[in-house]
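Box 4.2: Ligand-aware structure prediction
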Amino acid sequence: MKNIAVFSSGGGSNFKSIHRHIQAGEIPGLIIILISNNSDSDSIKYAKEYNIPTLIINKIRYPNPVAREELLTEALIKKNVDLICLAGYMKLIPQSIVHKYQNRILNIHPALLPQFGGKGFYGIKVHEAVIQSGAEVSGVTVHFVDEDYDHGKIIAQKKIKVRPEDTAITLAEQVLKVEHDLYPKVVKAFC
Ligand code: GRF
């Protein structure tokens, strides 16, 4: 059983999908902690509902960045975390944690990296850029996290056809469905 820490800032649909696959007995892992910067997020609500321990770390609660980093590191060590899954986490992971957990931090990106990735490519902006580019194919990427945004080694990708009638919103919906399938598969493979 691997101990998994999920980091999620918002809706948390990928977090929920991983959790559902664990509950169905498909992944030999346990979500040992849900970490968020957003106390109002649906991911925090969901974690509480399922008795998953939560940790909220943000500038309001901990104005000192060193204290934030220490708290995060301590929590991961205390919980014996084997794998970190970033699932819509909008904050940068401190370098010390990236180094300590090399090849043990996964991220999901809603496009085919290395295209449409990097600083500024997040959320709906990714899909707007894809539509604007006229690309006929988009997709999902799961990759390891390194020092740069959306840059680490790619583990799995799945393509999706961009339909002529797609808007950024409809494309995001299509992509998200594929994310919910691909991310748990990679987490399972890792475990
Ligand atoms: C997903 O599109 C994911 O690829 C990106 O942020 C979004 C998060 O969605 N990193 P959710 O919070 O998992 O619903």
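In the box above, the bound molecule is 5-O-phosphono-beta-D-ribofuranosylamine. The chain has a mean pLDDT of 97.
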